[in-house]
Amino acid sequence: MCTTSKRGMLQAEQQEAIIGRTKLDNVELDDAASGQQSHKALATIEDENGDEHDILRDNMPSGSPGSGQFGTYFIGYSRRLWVIERILQRMFVGDPPGLHDRLLDFSKPLTGTTFFAPFASLLASLDSD
Question: Domain locations in the chain?
Answer without folding.
Answer: 2-125
